[in-house]
Amino acid sequence: MLVSLVSLLALGASSLAHPLLDLEKRTGSGGCNADNVLRLLRATQRLDDSIAFCSQYLDLPAVTQTLPPAPTATAVVTLTEFRFTTVTETFVITETDVEFEKLKKRCTSTTTTTTSKSISTPGYILSTSIDPSRLSSACGCLTIPLATVTVPATDIPGTLTTSFSETQTETVTDWIISTETATITAPSFILASPTPVCCRSGIDEPAPFDVDDAYYRVEIPFEAEVYGLKSNLVFASINGLIWLDENSQGNYWYYHTDGDTNGAPLPLGPDDLPDVAILPFWSDLFVNGGKVQGIFYEISGNTITFEYVVSAYDSTVNDYHFTVAISNDNKVTIKYYAVLDSEDGTVAIQKKSSDAAIVFSRGEAAKVYAGLTLEFDTTAGTVNSI
């Protein structure tokens, strides 16, 4: 409303210097447009105020009336006082500061305070949003008496000036700033310099959205080797499944239970798994948007290490936290830092085309736990707790 009013006053001053010249044109064969604006101005209870406002808004000139000479010359000037209302608005801005406690990094925010200015005007116009052209047209349809200055002929001053005093009130909009702090607990990462596999620039940022049944490809500067299969492409699924070689095909990135018609109990199943499948904890896992969760990796020499920080499906906490190190010597090392339920996952490595499988746990209670470290040797066909 304040911006609209400033626009109205500016338009009145710049483009309507002599509006009386246009009054006859507006009242031609079509007459005045008796719209809501005109009806608002000429309502009986506010007509006097409307005439006063429109006289100022249209910048109507004064008319000088000369009387015959008289013994005493007296100039009579009639001034009308107008009263205006001022509206002050208060706005509230709320911003959020996100803190990561353990990572000791912050997302910071800046606060901007602005002020706005309004020019006073009668209350019943101030409370209504009116287009400038409609207001000037409506004012032009009112019968507005011009200000009159009466002086005797012998006392006419060389320069006759009439003035109107206007009070302008500056309204400052107060911005009340409220800061809310939301604390997200980030995990203590095991990797020294982890890189997220997807969708964010750093580990101090929460996942931008929920992730379910997705997998990601990482190209590495050496050839990892498991069960004799070599590749510089490593794939990692949210559901605790890792494999090599982009030629692997199928729906194996989805989680299959033993009772699923698409699968079969390990070892050597289900059929949709890649030929060489690494299962550090194969289960129905989930990444929650807004949490510092996901799959991260780090490359050191001829070893790539993945770090999983994920939830069980329908959970929002870090239920499972483990690392998987794969190198070029047919060995895989898995370390567990958080395990919600050992019975919910399968831990194994298999190569179906060679009828070879190393199974540590197929949903066995208390078999997999926080603090456990396993080393799989696919050349020897063994798994050892170290």
Automatic annotation (TrEMBL):
Residues 1-17 form the signal peptide. Keywords: Signal. It comes from the Eukaryota. This is Uncharacterized protein. It comes from Orbilia blumenaviensis.
